[in-house]
Amino acid sequence: MDLKQLNAFIAIADSRSFSAAATKTGLSQPSLSRLLKQLETDMGVELVDRYHRPLHLTEAGTFFYDKISAILTEIDTVTSMTQRLSTPSSMLNIGFVPSVLYGLLPEIIAMLKQSSPDIDVNLKDISSYQQIEALKSGEIDIGFGRFPHQDPWIQQILLRHERYVVALPKAHPLAHVKEQRLIDLANNRLILYHQTHLPIATSLRSTSAKLDSNTKSRRTSAEQSTLSAPITEPLLHLFAQYGISPFMTTTVSDLQVALGLVAAGEGITLVPASLKTVRTDQISYQRLVHENVTSPIYLHTLKDFVHPSISDLLSATYQVYEQRGITYRQQKFVSQP
């Protein structure tokens, strides 16, 4: 058994076709067939049922695919990390989620370049979830994200918590209310935009004592049955902490689309306070009274390889926080000098 055989098997299993796998790998169909046959002979197990179209994995093949895929991913990660350790790049590749770009990230990068002018910086717009794989592959060296991650290859630190504000259409009856409560927003359509969900679910308590009878009567039986379901969507999680379930929700692809719908009067949403300068001619941003309704900002990087410029980035971050009077607890990554 060797890597060529394993990669051939993975390509065939993913494509469910020898011709498609050949196109993917650049190998001929006879070569792929030979590598698969050698692997099956070495193992003494049939992995692929060749008599179906598309090809099917046998029960043993499905088990082997699930286990060997994870191992090959780890091999690729270790290979990439080893190459970076032997020839570290002077470029610092930084991943970020769009909401961070509207906040202090531009000031942090400017501070970094001012204090360390020899550092080359490359910024990449990439979701919190995608940043984990990007760190492993070497696409980025560090990521600014909004969600905690539990991955054996990754370490992260919490930079700070940013308060949420409610975004309402300018014509909304609550648009000029300076202190908003989640319970007062429950009868609105809530626009959801997060592509990453929380790793830990929260159960939603009944809200029958808090919502008016008209709202309760308008709920469908399906909506009623989900009141006790696990809540992992971040905005719904915030409402769930107070035992509240929004009357209606709409899910969109990203934050900018959500704010576009708010501007069009199609609903409301919650965004980190750094976004309150977007579309201000159409949207009213108001403070929430709940102090724990916040969006965290995390920095994450690899456990076993910390780019040498990350310490300078972290120092620049804390300098900006001090200038802005932001409370923080200074931290370092484990293998950071």
TrEMBL record:
Originating organism: Psychrobacter immobilis
Keyword annotations: DNA-binding, Transcription, Transcription regulation
GO terms for cellular component: protein-DNA complex
TM region positions: none
Protein name: LysR family transcriptional regulator
Keyword Transport: no
MF-aspect GO terms: DNA binding; DNA-binding transcription factor activity
InterPro entries, per database record: LysR_HTH_N, LysR_subst-bd, WH-like_DNA-bd_sf, WH_DNA-bd_sf
Domain of life: Bacteria
